[in-house]
Design a protein that fits this description.
This protein is mostly helical. It contains one helix and no strands.
Length: 62
Amino acid sequence: MSDAVSLARSIVTMQTASTQQALSVEMIKQNAQADQGLVAMLQQSVEQIQATLPAGQGAWST
């Protein structure tokens, strides 16, 4: 009986770890999507600001 309890605990522990990893991966994906959205908003803002500047102003120098 002790072996069965030990096995059951082990399975529950593995399932818990697996669930935590899945949640972590999902959070990372959501953070990446949010970051991409922020980058898009910043790019749009830069383009709008550059459009209001006189010719030759606001261009990135490389």
